[in-house]
Amino acid sequence: MHTLYDESLYVNTPVQSYWEHTAGGPDGASTPLKGSVDVDVAVIGGGYTGLSTALHLARDHHIDTCVLESGHMGWGASGRNGGFGCIPASKLGVEDLVSRYGLDETRRFFAAQLDGLQLIRDLCNGEGIDCDLVGDGNLEVAHRPSRLRDLVRYADELTRYFGIPTRVLDRAEFGELGFECAEQCGGIHMAAGFGLHPLKFARGLADSARRHGAALYPHSEVESWQRQGNVHVLTARDGRVKAERVVLATNGYLREGLHDGFDRRLLPAISNIVTTRPLSREELAAHRWNTPNPICNTRN
Ligand SMILES: Cc1cc2nc3c(=O)[nH]c(=O)nc-3n(C[C@H](O)[C@H](O)[C@H](O)COP(=O)(O)OP(=O)(O)OC[C@H]3O[C@@H](n4cnc5c(N)ncnc54)[C@H](O)[C@@H]3O)c2cc1C
Questions:
Q1: Residue of 115, 246, 251 to test ligand 1 pocket, by largest number of atoms within 8 Å of CB
Q2: Do residues 192 and 279 share a domain?
Q3: E strands of the chain, at which residues?
Q4: Is there an atom of ligand 1 within 6 Å of 71 CB?
Q5: pLDDT tens-digit readout, 20-36
Q6: Which pTM value belongs to this model?
Q7: pLDDT by residue (tens digit) across 34-61?
Q8: Which end of the chain is more exposed for a tag (fewer CB within 10 A), N or C?
């Protein structure tokens, strides 16, 4: 018999996340830091920021780089996010952005987002990263009829100001694309973005960084950070790294006490992604859902 939640909740045993469960086994290619290591650049944090930094430094600039990560590579938000490669990166609408920052700055903001999406595609293609990248854009669904009017205006602005192709879909067209439920009142398609498997992408970045010469140390939390003249000394449980420069790529996970400059300045925000067990046809019908498109957003 199916329980409402995962079986583990009833026996109190931690389980892997959906992404860990489907990433194809643990990443065992690197081992924790042991002993003393000298590098040009030490990166603290093995998520997209840290791994991409290490990859680009090693590949494009031949800089001797290492990454120190508390958990496994991609342990933080990079290995457990929603997998949406999407726009926009702000809750403010286009008109609000333009009136606050001006059209030129807003155009630069959107261009940077599109560049970011293209960088992911280029990295996947150029480095052979297989992370189940799918789709040709994002769908945004109107969950009330009045929201469709806003979305139509938004689609027009995206095309007019930033040249992003968009398409308005009525309820039936949206349903035919694979997303039919009681709260679907049509939506828009924006031809920018895709979906991917976030942990596979993080591991792909790690493999590429390693292949180009970066040293990766999982399960090596940096516990102290000191200066000796011009050199930074980072200490983990079983080793230490001396580096000319340090890149802090710890997101909101940085502990207080590691560096004065960051104490009391970071406030982690919590957000969640929920997956269900596979739903039966009867359950889907009861909720009037078909298979949801994996790249589908709602905004309030
Ligand atoms: C639930 C959720 C859903 C999201 N959905 C999306 C989405 O759909 N699309 C999207 O674009 N973005 C999404 N995001 C945001 C995205 O995941 C993050 O912006 C991105 O992963 C940040 O990457 P990062 O490398 O900067 O940080 P992280 O991936 O968090 O990496 C920071 C790493 O630093 C390590 N660390 C911290 N302190 C130390 C230390 N002292 N020593 C060693 N290591 C340390 C941590 O262990 C961690 O692994 C989502 C985030 C969350 C939480």
A1: 251
A2: yes
A3: 35-44, 65-68, 84-85, 138-141, 166-169, 187-190, 194-195, 215-217, 224-228, 231-236, 239-248, 296-298
A4: yes
A5: 989 987 777 899 999 99
A6: 0.91
A7: 999 999 999 999 999 999 999 999 999 9
A8: N
Residues 281 and 252 in one domain: no
Assess whether 289 and 157 both reside in one domain. Answer: yes
- Domain range for residue 42? 18-80+199-262
Residues 69 and 211 in one domain: yes
CATH code for position 234: 3.50.50.60
Where b means 16+ CB within 10 Å and e means fewer, 262-297 reads: eeeeeeeeeeeeeeeeeeeeeebeeeebbeebbbbb
Q: What is the pLDDT of residues 164-194, one digit of tens each?
A: 999 999 999 988 886 777 778 999 999 999 9
Domain count, the chain: 2
State residue 280's pLDDT score: 63
HSE-CB at 59 with a 13 A cutoff on CA atoms is: 17
d(CA 28, CA 279): 33
What pLDDT, on a 0 to 100 scale, did the predictor assign at position 223? 96
Tell whether 148 and 247 lie within a shared domain: no
Q: 290 and 184 share a domain? A: yes
Q: Are residues 64 and 205 in the same domain?
A: yes
pLDDT given at position 186: 94
Q: How many helices (H) and strands (E) does the chain have?
A: 9, 12
Q: What is the whole-number distance in angstroms between the Cα of residue 262 and the centre of ligand 1?
A: 17
Q: pLDDT for 123-149, tens place per residue?
A: 999 999 999 999 999 999 998 999 999
Do 233 and 137 share a structural domain?
A: no
CA of 51 to the centre of ligand 1 (A): 11
213-272 pLDDT, tens per residue? Answer: 999 999 999 999 999 999 999 999 999 999 999 999 999 888 889 998 888 888 888 888
